[in-house]
Amino acid sequence: MYQIVPVAPGEQQTAGGAGGSPLKKKLAHEGRPLVMAAVLGCVLVLASVVAWCYYSASLRKAQLLKAELLDLNKDGFIIHNQAGAVIFSMTFRSGTLDLDSCSKEGNILSCSRSDSGKLNFFIQTVRLKDTVMCYRVRWEELQNKYLVEHAMAYNDSHWYGGAETATQYWPVKIQGEEEPQPFITSDIYSNRNAFGGILERYWLSSNATAIKINDSVPFHLGWSEKDRTLRFQARYQDSPFRPPEGQPALPELSYRVCVGSDVTSIHKYMVRRYFPKPVKVPSPEVFKQPLWSTWALHKTAVTQEKLLRYASDITKHGFTCSHLELDDRYTADYGEFDFDPQKFPNASGMFDRLREEGFQVSLWTHPFINYDSINFGVAVEKGLFVREPSGELPALVRWWNGIGGILDFTNPEAREWYSSHLHMLKQRYNVTSFKFDAGETSYLPRQFSTLVPLSDPSTFTRRYTEMAIPFSERAELRVGYQSQNISCFFRIIDRDSVWGYELGLKSIIPTVLTISILGYQFVLPDMIGGNAYPNRTTDGKNGLPDRELYIRWLELSAFMPAMQFSIPPWAYDNEVVQIAQKFTELHENLVAPRVLELAGEVLDTGDPIIRPLWWIANDDEAAYKIDSQFLIGDDLMVAPVLQPGKQERDIYLPAGRWKSYKGEHFDKGPMYLTDYPVDLDEIAYFTWVH
Asked: How many beta carbons lie within 10 A of that of residue 136, not counting itself?
């Protein structure tokens, strides 16, 4: 066959020549798209290969940046539970990772660069048992950088732990925007926005996750209500933390996050693994019988005559006494270790008489020596004080009773000098023990030096708590940092005689629960009714706390590990005396035996004596938010009245069978008992029926 190709008018037909035949021209013209299509096809194939290679590399990188249940990206990491839900998330606020510098070897994910230079970053996955997975995280700057900061999101969960605070909430409540501050022990009675005298770098979540910041970190804590985050920061600049001697001031933020099957079991795991435990149970007598302090009643005006009358009144009104606590001020000057002869003209005779009447006595002590004390010159000469940064002069500090030096408890000579004076008092007067006051790092000067340099200022608190060890049977401390193995009573900071959450009655349960979660179980909840300080007392008469407040405070204290009176019930009327007798007997007969049994278990487990409701109901959302009820062990639940003018309250009963103190049975829980009647001389409590 042949093809007839039409020719357009005027088109010349030739058999040869430069233009070629029309057929060839047509074929050449139609061949161009085919070539272009072939080239385009090659390009597409090549692009597909590149895309596949890139996808494969991305897939490998994505797999590389995964550990068990953890996903890492340049801005942070998240942890899932077995069901795939996000239960923990951390954002890197101070820098982003260069993912090209990351590698994975075994169970360790590591990266060597960030957007600002070299670093040592890793996440190590450690499966410790079937139900617990832990992640060790470390971000260490290797070039001059001011700080490292990570922000932990709340993830719609409830968090507990951290520190005693002046306004204490349970669970932790994030309010406002707070730049990271040094996480060190402070006196929150005088500085109500600081972190308290008992603190640990540990938090626990209702999502069954826990985080513990490493001891080596120069740790600062802030928060953001807007972002719903806790801000964890490591820095040395503008900070009381110091790098270890001979090491550069390069910040390092390291911590471990552990995930468990439920909040109670992950907490038990963390406490057993990371917290020291007490080595013995303190005096059973202090758990059974109230101790009586002179402080709220007499303040610094205490005398020999007043102390003897106080002891006589305790006996006259039919109360028992584990020991009397002679508080501030029995010495002539602060920093002395004997009695002011004007206020205590016959101290030896006073102690003999008290002993004959069946009273043991403990004495107040503190780490300060005021400049007008005869011991100030002695301590300067012996080099016993914390010093100025130069190390030559003692650093003067201001505390609530004046100006003086503070003993350097990193110095063995200072420890021995202080301890020998306490032992001398004990032997001379047969003193039973001591109330160790202060000890917070907020009483160290801003710039200071100690014989043994302190990388972490709160180590000073730890060293001070060690001074209580020889007297621990009945000793009392108000500070604690890595001090859970000091087997004495830990007192929460002074309370005001008010109802609310700021150092008032409502703050007691959240504070006791918080320090219990931090591993401090032998809790002294401060004086019944508060301290009756002027201008910090609700509607009291004659300088006394409000009568109803005092009664409700007394009832709550009866269900705490130990009871402490100062303002006596007979300062009010006979009805208050009768209520106090009823509750001190209830404490001794019902509460103390249970508490002592649990105290023995603390030595092995570290588990709280005073427990939150979620301890036995960790799949119950309501139990995570209740801050006005608590458990003693697993089977005694307490619901005090904490509101003025109320003789009823709402009570939450977790699932199980409960029997009320009135004999009622409830076995269809969980349930709310609304407006449950509780008379002024009652506290609602329920026992678990097995």
From this structure: 17
